[in-house]
Amino acid sequence: MKIAEVEVHILESGYLGTKIIRDRAASPMGRFPRFAETRSSWIWPTAKVATVVRADNGAQGVSITNGGEVVAAIASRLGWLIRGETVDSPQDLWELMMRSITLWDRSGFVGMGLAALDIAIWDLCADEAGKPLIDLLGGARTDSMPVYITTARPMAGSGFTGVKMPARYGPESGEEGMRQNCMDVAAAREVLGTGADVSFDCFVGWDAGYTAQMIERLEPYRMRWIEDPLLPNDIEGFRKLAEAGHKFSVGNFLYSYAEIKQFLEMGVVEALQPDVAWSGGITENLRIAELARKFSVPLIFHNTTEQPWALALSFALPCAEVEHVDRGGQSILAELFAAQAPAPAGALSVADIPASNRLSAAALSAMRRYNGDQ
Fold this sequence. Notes:
Layout: E1 3-11, H1 19-22, E2 48-55, E3 60-65, H2 68-82, H3 90-101, H4 108-129, H5 133-136, E4 144-150, E5 162-166, H6 174-192, E6 197-201, H7 208-218, E7 226-227, H8 235-243, E8 248-250, H9 257-266, E9 269-272, H10 281-294, H11 308-316, E10 322-325, E11 347-349, H12 361-366, E12 368-369
Parallel strand pairs: 4-5, 4-10, 5-6, 6-7, 8-9
Antiparallel strand pairs: 1-2, 1-12, 2-3, 4-11
C-alpha cells in the first residue's frame, strides 16, 4: 500500500462561540485589560484542520486537529513529502516527517502538523486492515474507563470522578481575585461533597509566586490538582515550585516527547495530560505513554471524549481515566464525525469507542481545500 493523495482542509467549527471559551477565565493575556475577560477575545488560530490521506488501493484515513492555516501549511508540506511512500508502519512515516521539519521548528504548530498526518495514517492502516484502530493498538486492556468533566457548572450525583474548573482569576486581579478563586472552589466542594474530586485549570495564566500563594489558600478544599499554572517556557518558575514540593497537572501545552520528558525529570508532574492531536499524534503519544510509566505518573489524554483516536489509546494503554469537556451543549468537535462517542455519565465502555474517523455530512460541507504552496 502506497500513499497516493493527501488533502488538507480548513474547517471553521464555531469554536469562538462555545461557552467555555466565552466565559471568564485566567489566561496568559490577563495582564492586558482589553483581553483579560475572555479567551475568545484573543485566542488564535481557531479553525480546525481536516486531513485526508488516501492510498493507491482505495483505503482512506482522516484526522482533525487545531491550528488553522498555520498547521494546514505544515500538514500540506508533510503530505507532499510522503506521497508515493509505502506504508510499512505509521512509526516509520512519522520518523520521516519529523526529521524533515524539526530542524527548523519544534513548536506546537509542528506537533499539530505531525499529528494531522500521523493520526490519518493510523486511520488509513485501520481502514486497509478492516479493523477498528484499537485493534491495531493491541486491543482494549480494560472494559470501562472512569471519566472526569471539565466544566464551570459542577453538579452533584453526576457520576463523574471529579470536576475540573477554570480558574477565573490570575495575578492581575490581586487579593480580590484570590478570594474569588477560593469562593469558586468552596462552592464546588459544597455541591459535590466529598465524593468527587475538584481541580483547577489555570490555562497558564498564573506565575510562580501567585501559584504558591493559591496552593496555600486552597489547601482546605482538598484539591486533586492544579493544572497548567505557568507558561510552559517558565522553566525557572516550575523548578522553584518543584523545589518547594509542589506538583501539577501538565501536558496539553507540551507538544513533544522531549518537552514532556524535561518536565517529568524536573519532578513537577502530578498528572500528565497531553493532547494526541497536538503533541505529534498517536506515534508520539505511544512514546509519551512509556515516559508516564517510567516516571509512575498517571496519563489522561486531554479532551479525550471528542477524539476517537484518544479514546482508542486510552483503552488500549490503558490510561488512568478520560476527560470530557462540557461545551454548554452538543460538542462541536464531536459533530464533525459521523460516529460519536455517547455523552458519558461518569464512565465509558469500550463499546462506546467509534469504529472509525469518518467525517459527518456537516463537516464535509463546511470544509474548504487548503491551497497554500507546498
